[in-house]
């Protein structure tokens, strides 16, 4: 086994451990490391419950409704 494959397997194992423990900062950093080192990694990979919540909300409504909801949530109106 070469060093790159071993490193990727180690990162994947640590990602699963961090996921099970709920370490969101660790999850984000491991997600970035995997995205940088794995050419097959998707362009966008949601990390953590907040990211999944936002993506689920985005896919459940129109762009306009999603934008209105996000602006209301963060109280940002131009």
- Element string (H = helix, E = strand): HHHH
Mean pLDDT: 80
Beta content:
under 5%
Radius of gyration of CA atoms, rounded to a whole number: 16 Å
Question: How many β-strand runs?
Answer: 0
What kind of sheet is the major sheet?
Answer: none
Basic shape: elongated
Category from helices, strands and their pairing: mainly alpha
**What share of residues is helical?**
over 70%
Give the terminus-to-terminus CA distance. Answer: 54 Å
The number of helical elements comes to: 4
Point out poorly predicted stretches: none
Number of domains: 2
Blueprint of the fold:
Layout: H1 3-21, H2 24-37, H3 49-59, H4 63-74
Helix pairs in contact: 1-2
């Amino acid at each position: 086994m070469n060093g790159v494959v071993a490193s990727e397997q180690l990162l994947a194992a640590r990602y699963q451990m961090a996921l099970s423990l709920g370490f969101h900062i660790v999850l984000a950093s491991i997600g970035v490391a995997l995205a940088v080192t794995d050419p097959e990694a998707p362009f966008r990979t949601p990390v953590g419950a907040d990211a999944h919540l936002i993506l689920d909300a985005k896919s459940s409504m129109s762009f306009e409704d999603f934008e209105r909801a996000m602006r209301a949530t963060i109280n940002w109106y131009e």
